[in-house]
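User: For my dataset I need records formatted as: sequence, then structure tokens, nothing else. Please produce one.
Assistant:
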Amino acid sequence: MSQEIKSEKDSIRSSKDSTRQLDEVVVTALGIKRSKRNLTFSTQEIKSDELLRAKDPSILNSMTGKIAGVQLTSSTGMPGSATRIVIRGATSLYGDNQALIILDGIPINNDETGNPTDGGGGSNRLNDLDPAIIDNVNILKGAAATALYGSAGARGVVLITTKKGTMSNTPKVSFSTSNIMDKAILPEHQMKYALGLDGQYYDGVNQQSSLSWGPSMDSLTAADPSVKFYNPLKEFYKTGFTTLDNVSVSGGNGKSDYVMSYSYVNQSGTEPTTNFIRHNFFSKYNVNILNDLTATFQLSYSSSVNNILPQSYASNPLFTLYNAPVSYNLNPYEDEDGNQRLYRTGRDNPYWLLHNTINKSNINRFIPVLTINWHPTNWLSIMERGGGDVYVDRYHSFVNQGSVTYTTGLITTNNTTFKQFNNDFIVTLNKDFGSKWRTNLILGNNIYSNYSENLYAYGSDLSIAGFSNMSNASNVKYTESSGLKRKVGFYSQAEIDYDKFLILSLTGRYDGSSVLSSDHRYYPYGSIATGFIFSEFLSENAKKIINFGKVRVSYASVGNDNVDAYANNTYYNQATVTGANGIPTNYPFGGLNGFLISDALGNGKLRNELQKEFETGLEMKFFDSRIGVEASYFHRNMSNGIVAGLALPYSTGYASTTINSSRMTTNGIELLINANPIRTKDFRWDLTINYTRIRTIVNEIAPGLDTASIGGTYAIAGQRYGMLMGTRYQRQDGKIVVDDNGLPVNNGIAEVVGNNTPNWLGGITNTFNYKNFMLSFFIDVKSGGAFINSQDSYGMYYGTAIQTLDRGTRVVNGVNATTQQANTVAVTGRDYWQSVSGVTESYVQNASYVKLRNVTFSYSLPKTVLGNSLIKATSITFTAKNIILNKSKGFTAGDPETINSGGASNGAMGVYLPSVPGSTSYGLSLNVNF
């Protein structure tokens, strides 16, 4: 009998879970909550506990690999480094392709700032947000889902909803602390051969060289025991530590509620001088002013300091480190006279750079939001919501006197002020007609402004060593720039629900943008979408198997003003004139200032980019929602695409301009499976699988232009977006052509060598709950996606790349360019590798991987143990990240995720220079609720 009662209880609990999932409410465009059952577009939600499970200071890093249709790409493994988020592939050839970020209904900035003067990535501004204050994140993927957001919504939308207070008169206090240890995933480096040339040893003092083509260390130490072996990478990288602390208080009564939170992050990188420190304050207060009038005010404040490492050529310590010989001790970095110790000329000692350079970004940011809701009747509501996003980024860099690159020293400051304001006025009407017709109408107005100001100073020739102040520079160059963008929009959305099985949704928006020409400043767009819930027509027996089924179809046409401010104007710049002797003259000169008209011609006819997207999807739930499947297919056409920097004939008097001419096509498949294979009283197993395959093809760039550079990547008509170009081996009938010396011949022209976008992405999350224990692990998969490993190019030449372990004499399998006969000329290993180091094809690598990205194991104390104590709940959690990594064959750069040394921009993807690698992490957390 007891077993029958238990089975009945399990059945009731299963039925409740099923009903709850079908009635799930999610946040959609403009912060409007809607039943997921009635949605006519694709969306995916991540709850707070899943975000916090990763124990990462970055919200985006916590989401990586978990959302179908979304690609998140880290730049490097440096603390606070930028992460790129692209929804459903690239939407613009030159413009911003990253998703719009919305916090509680207000758009917030996610630009990348703090990029070092000497090159490399900075930090994206979503890093300012505290994951601990987030209740959920909802991703709106298609154009039909985002049309109400205006121009920026064309790139997809990330909706972030923060936590709110409780209706408990007794304040609830929560405290959590996490301590995490990081170990760098080091790139490969040959550890066998010493500094030198042609087998001869150089000690780096009396004989200096950048080459590690010396003898083997075994033979060297046997002949001379005073010579020691060093592992430059392991000796340089240290164990990184991250501390995450949060305390929050929430409470309320029948008429108001509140929540306040403070978080502290201290992330010390594996590279000795990088670290990221952040303080976050958050408060939200909600009050019922009248029975039908509520107001919510919230304020987010963050203050962060990010010590950054340049990741380029000049003052990047990793450039010398990654090519350092194993026979030379880089420490001490100075001799007795205070001069740098160098084993080679032309590059600074990496440890000298650590102690004599500064690259620091300091951010202060405020995000206030005020929302007022009035419900005069049960069918009418009026909302007024206004908010801002204001931050100041103070970036300071310093290179001391004595640098090989900057012998007299260098100081730069780059102060950026950003102000963004947004206001929405929304009227919502809900009306039922009879028992079968339900209607909803939304009417709204949006006003938006965005202002940025940049003050940059460059100082050289320092007077006093070690004094990092602009007054110490003998020569100072100062520039100032600013930009203002404004938008106004009017929008509406109508939804009709007939008898709970047929939903029709219509949206329309009319936008005006200040960055477009006066003739094309205003533009309309909209969407039509329908959902058919066919499970309503199934028999009762069929519903026991298929308890929910919906087909949805949508079509949307959206605009995108993806162009910089003032691109339709031709403006003047402070003059720099180069004389016949090649020496530039900078103005002001001789007490006089001078300006020259820009060589970039403004286009007074610029209009919005246009995107038309068709989407269809299937959503089904089986066996009391124990299995859920959501599949989507979309096809998108982009036209009138912005092409910036288009070259002009010099006869026009200008060098370039911006036009609307590019076209792209994107097709994508998304699959999401949620399953609950086991669900009993004490044990539960939840499984989530996602899969994404997206192809974006560049159809046209501009008349007469088939190839265009986008930073380090390229757009080529007829090819996928994100092509990588470089030199290839010259081939004849498929065989490599060699010269008379027996060395491979470089074709000498730029050709396609790969594409930086993956073939497909996938992820599998397993979560097991048994009584008070929880075990979760997440497997992340990326298939395809090439990158140019420029570090290996240098390493092949210097003899430090792992490939150069194979340094014996060889005969290259090829055909002689002169005789057209099979090659018979033998070449040394050094000559071979130094020759192929100049062929891009030889160092293009596959960035595919399979990762055991996150493992979490937690235990919660039973309430029976806590009893009536002050502590209401407590848990301890162990986390691990990147503990198993399966890389593609031939990959040498450490962590395949952290290979975008230039940051998170379009042109930085797939271009790798020596940079801070990703880490394997282990952490322990404690959570206590009072």
